[in-house]
Amino acid sequence: MRKVGVLTGGGDCPGLNAVIQGIVVRAAQYGYEVYGVEDGYKGLLYGKARKLTTRDVEDIYWIGGTILGTSRKNPAKSEAELKTVVENFKKLGLDALITIGGDDTLGAAKKLYDAGIPVVGIPKTIDNDLPLTDYSIGFWTAVETIADALGKLHTTAKSHKRVMIAEIMGRYSGWLTLMGGIAGGAHIILIPEKPVDIDEVCRIIKERRERGEPYTLIAVAEGVTIPTTGELVTASTERDEFGHIRLGGVSKVLEEEIKKRTGEEVRSVVLGHIQRGGIPSAYDRVLGIRLGFKAVDLVKEGKYGYVIVLRGMDILPVKIEEVVGTIRKVPIELHEYTNVFTGLSTTHRS
Ligand code: F6P
After folding, report:
1. What is the helix (H) or strand (E) element at residue 284, kind and residue range?
2. pLDDT tens-place string over residues 302-336
3. Ligand 1 centre and the CA of 287: distance in Å?
4. Is the CB of residue 335 below 6 angstroms from any atom belonging to ligand 1?
5. How far is the CA of 171 from the centre of ligand 1 (A)?
6. Of 176, 170, 332, which is closest to residue 247 (Cα–Cα)?
7. pLDDT score recorded for residue 214
8. What pLDDT sits at residue 341?
9. How many angstroms separate the CA atoms of 38 and 343, rounded?
10. 10, 95, 174, 336: which has the fewest Cβ within 10 Å?
């Protein structure tokens, strides 16, 4: 009988529990035992894992977050910690480890694999910035949440004839802002992949007012650089164990700038962690269960050092090193869709 460990690392998201349920159910079909490692890689560092039965995971697929807990712990921060993690993996009697996470978690999984731990990775991040997978777990639920929030901001912006700016997560990629912005009907969408032209933003706002639409909804990605300084706006100077700084505040900077230039009433709102919470969409539930099944299938085949990705209708394994270390940016041509809401004058400009 095989003992399979599973952990969730990095920021949580809706759909993780669906993956866990998929893993436990598939493992039971093969007669394997599953151990849930607590709080991401912290659990491996401190040897904390509990047995998960099919009973334990019954109906968790529709619950947000992760029943295992998570953390931004880097297990390879030092040689000593990496050694402890490998020792604990052995002490727990595990034969394989399934790690569910984004670039940091999967990058660390690669290091564990190189250190001798048989790993299978599952891509998860609302940012959708992992290469080689169409979508990662949690992304579409977050898009739904953003679209819903933008819809609400739309009505209040319209009533008050204001410019309303919504700041959206995603770190250095604009997937959430672009897809959420399109789905939520934002008139202007600002993403890190396209330099912000503040004159153009103000021109659109003015044109809308002149056309009898005296309100504008702007979706801005937290990772957009400020045109005046060329810098990112950060919420704190602290870095996590993977070296990431916490982004936040770009909407407030834009609020001041737009107010100054246009004389409009401007308000900004940071959607924040609301985007990561809540019940997973039907899409993320189904994707999660499918990824969970496939991960255990790879364990059965003894195929380690792979990440499972979604390509069209298929769930496929790709080498872990092909997925980690690169941020997938939004192809710039997708930004063209924002013209649907910006207005005809922009669409027809040559
Ligand atoms: O990586 C996912 C993400 O949600 C980013 O979009 C965001 O910048 C970051 O996590 C926030 O992290 P934390 O939960 O540590 O504040």
Report:
1. helix 282-301
2. 999 999 999 999 999 999 999 999 999 999 999 88
3. 21
4. no
5. 7
6. 170
7. 94
8. 79
9. 50
10. 336
**What distance in angstroms lies between residue 244's CA and the mean position of ligand 1's atoms?**
9
Distance CA 188, CA 182 (A): 9
Ligand 1 midpoint to CA 36 (Å): 23
142 lines ligand 1 (CB under 6 A): no
Indicate the top mutation candidate among 276, 327, 328 to test ligand 1's pocket, ranked by most ligand atoms within 8 A of CB: 276
* Mean residue pLDDT across the chain: 95
Whether ligand 1 lies within 6 angstroms of the CB of 11 is answered as yes
How much of the chain exceeds pLDDT 90, in percent?
A: 93
Neighbours of 67 (CB within 10 A): 16
Contact 4, 92 (CB under 8 A): no
The closest-lying atom of ligand 1 relative to the alpha carbon of residue 171 is 8
- Cβ 254 under 6 angstroms from ligand 1: no
Instruction: Please give the Cα distance from 307 to 102 (Å, whole number).
Output: 11
* Mean pLDDT to the nearest integer, 234-240: 93
For a ligand 1 pocket test, name from 70, 103, 169 the mutation site with the most ligand atoms within 8 angstroms of its C-beta.
169
Question: For the chain, which domains are there?
Answer: 3-137+280-322 (3.40.50.450), 139-277 (3.40.50.460)
- Ligand 1: atom nearest CA of 222 is 8
First to last CA, the chain: 66
CA pair distance 60, 19, nearest whole angstrom: 10
Cα separations in angstroms, 102 against 136, 149, 234, 301, 305: 9, 25, 21, 24, 15
Which residues have a catalytic role annotated? 127
C-beta of residue 26 within 8 angstroms of C-beta of residue 49: no
Q: How would you write 163-207 as a 3-class SS string?
A: EEEEEECCCCCCHHHHHHHHHCCCCEEECCCCCCCHHHHHHHHHH
For β-strands 188-190 and 216-221, DSSP reports them as parallel
The SS3 of residue 309 is: strand
